[in-house]
Design a protein that fits this description.
alpha+beta; Phosphoenolpyruvate Carboxykinase, domain 3; 9 helices; eight-stranded mixed β-sheet; about 325 residues; nine-stranded mixed β-sheet; 2 domains; about 40% strand; globular
Amino acid sequence: MKTYSHTFNAFDKPLRIFGDWAPCLSDLRSWYAMPLFTGSDAPELTLEVAGAVMEDIERIIPLPEMEYKIRSGIMMVNQNYDYATYAKGCMHWIDYAGAGRIMIDFEKGSALSLICGDAMLPTYQKYLFVEHPLDKLLTSKGIFSMHASCAQVFGKGIAFTGNSGAGKSTAAFALMRKGMPILTDEKLFIFKDKGYAAGSISDIIKVKDDVISNFFASPGSCREYDVIAEEHYLKLGGSKETAWQSLAPLKVLCMLEQTGLPETEVKAVSPTRLAGGLFPVTITGASPQFRAAKFGFITEMLENIECRLVKFGTDMNDFAAKIEELAQAL
């Protein structure tokens, strides 16, 4: 069986992703937009992704006692999978019943994903068995993820967060249509770098047909990575008609509120009010070992960057103009 090995530069952290599971690893350099690591340093973070039968998974990654179970539920992808997460000391486990299991060792900076069978589509495997443990490993290095979109406007990172359906992706695409590079439409990584830096590790976005017709010049303006259940996974990098970049200095965090009115209104808001809407979704998924660290990081960040409440209107040209005014005024 062929083995794969990719060493990426993940925000200046050498990250090695390797293993024999071809559905995830054979095209990983296309899925991720991280540059390859060119230095001689040993990897700080490692992630192995391999195939295994359930008997071997139980032997290689046994789950801890039930008292260490912290969450369970149903993961809805191309079919439903029961899942459970466990935490014990510096170890973290995620079990997807019948699909595979993940073990993360934060002390060693390593993770092992074992996948059983091909019932789960490869794109979903990348999200659950590669991207999810990678998110956890980056957290252990002070690189925290946030459910937010982000665009660079006149050299300044403008991030958008809010409740589900608030328009995070739409906000980013409206700015992209005006020539502003976007970093992500969904998951944003934030870390300290003099000030605060915002970044993304992939240039893949997920959109529906109406989004393509509204914000992209044509269905072929971006490479189509995959199509699942009428959702298109588009690769922005390398397109002549879209702008994407991996990193920007984070200057503003905007909380979006839909109004149904044409015009957008941008208002200054206290960090306390912004935190109220931000923390539930941002902190819930954090590993217990790093939940307090993530809470403290986000709290400090809100005190040191600009915070805005954006009453998001339906006129995308007006919205883009208001955000450009905001960026120019900083």
